[in-house]
Amino acid sequence: MEFVNKAASLSTIIFVVSSMLAVGLSLTVGRVVAPLRNARLVTFALLANFVLMPLAAMAIARLLQLDGSLGVALLLLGTAPGAPFIPLLAGIAKGDLAFSVGLTVLLMILSVAYMPLVLPLLLSGVSVDPAKIASSLLLLMLLPLGIGLAVKAGLEGIAARIEPLFSNASKFALMLLILLMFVANIQNILSLYVSRGVLASILLLVAGSIIGWFLGGPAVKTRSVMALGTAQRNIAAALVVAKQTSVTHGWP
Fold this sequence. Notes:
Strand content: under 5%
CATH architecture: Up-down Bundle
Oligomer: single chain
Shape: globular
CATH class: Mainly Alpha
Number of strands: 2
Largest sheet: 2 strands, antiparallel
Structural class: mainly alpha
Number of helices: 12
CATH topology: Na+/H+ antiporter like fold
Order of helices and strands: HHHHHHEHHHHHHE
Number of domains: 1
Radius of gyration: 18 Å
Distance between the termini: 31 Å
Strand order of the largest sheet: 1-2
């Protein structure tokens, strides 16, 4: 079992780093910045992801009376916006791709400062080292993202060739991580159905979709992106923070 846990930790790192590299290699700084000039839409996006979703996670956890670890996990997801696959989902939904790219990167960057500051305030009985969390997020997320953007800007041909490699690596690492975590925590996973953990996840997803849709502006293309971007939480960031967070008293 120790081997499985170590393999899961390694898979987590590979998933986080490779997904951030893939995002950076597929973008340009111009594409990231251009949609963010719509101040009203950006303000609503920040409100949805950094205020309303954490509140929704807390409300769902209390409503379903989740135990300590499940409550903390749900709140970690609630405070972790900027899933790297939002542009992929936006493309499938025929949403505003430029806005989805800018929104994703903005949420990723802000979450690095937001999560270490907010989690100690929201979680009673949880020991959080803000500096350690911030440094982990910077090292594992923003640094690979920055490297990817730099390669894309200076060596576009190389970026186009290697981006699929990192994209596939992130998908493989995520699938492997899910399998390893299932093996290592099969009893806990089975208990999710008893403890209403699955229901809590579904409710958080629905809440994010509704919040994002109503704050996404008048255009359907931006509404769909906001709904997807708010509902899909950044599992990579949540995993990084979870590795640096210790629960001492449980869910308040």
